[in-house]
Write a structure and sequence with these properties.
31% of the residues lie in helices and 10% in strands. It has 4 helices and 6 strands, in the order αββαββαββα. The longest helix has 51 residues. Pfam families: N_methyl.
Length: 223
């Protein structure tokens, strides 16, 4: 009787080259999927937070209007202490106390989480600009006396912007690009942008590249 062949019972250590390559490929695919999903989740979260910020600021502006004969803030508003406020300071005055320097305490809701544009040292980020129409800034010429329009003058609140995303190095708290006066794609390099309309809705719309396109789209007070 022939002896039975001896089986090799020694365990094989490690992976073969082919197995290693397969594992690496699988890990790469999974990692790419995770990165894509994580990026989409982050964008969704940022968009949600940004829209919430805009609504809170819009509500504060309307609170101010209700306390001031139903008028939107002026282009420049002088506080009781004689300090010149822009729209963001006016809005935050409804939500917080004044600092020692006479300005309302800064609130992160004026900054969009997707805004990564650097600001000058010492300046606080503001990511939104107001529609010049609602603050009486019609001509593009600096008019400190420009006054906010009455709420009753709004023809179509759902088509008239109140706040627009503006990612610009000069857009800082109570300074810089406070009223949007042209197309805004140049400011954040995106094809789409968030806009808070006067009816309280926040919508993502195409970014215009010209002032005419901006006026036709949202910087107006008409049907």
């Amino acid at each position: 009787m022939l002896p039975s062949p001896v089986k090799n019972t020694r365990r094989r250590d490690g992976f073969t080259l082919l197995e290693s390559l397969v594992v690496i490929a699988i890990i790469s695919v999974v990692a790419s999927i995770v990165f894509v999903v994580a990026g989409k989740v982050k964008k969704t979260v940022n968009d949600t937070v940004g829209a919430s910020n805009m609504r809170q600021l819009g509500s504060a502006i309307f609170l101010y209007a209700e306390a001031n004969k139903l008028h939107f803030p002026n282009l420049l508003t002088v506080s009781e202490r004689g300090i010149t406020w822009q729209w963001d300071a006016v809005a935050l005055s409804m939500l917080s106390d004044e600092r020692v320097d006479g300005f309302p305490t800064y609130n992160p809701i004026v900054a969009d989480p997707s805004d990564e544009v650097e600001r000058p040292v010492g300046k606080q980020v503001r990511s939104y600009s107001i529609n010049p129409v609602v603050v009486g800034y019609y001509t593009g010429i600096f008019l400190p006396s420009a006054t906010g329009i009455s709420l009753s003058e709004l023809v179509n609140p759902g088509q008239t912007a109140l706040l627009v995303e503006t990612y610009d190095t000069n857009n800082v708290y109570n300074g810089g690009t406070y009223a949007i006066g042209s197309g805004v794609r140049q400011f954040h390099g995106k094809d789409m942008m968030k806009v808070l309309f006067c009816d309280g809705s926040v919508r993502t719309i195409p970014s215009p590249t010209t002032y005419t396109g901006a006026v036709e789209g949202y910087l107006r007070n008409g049907p």
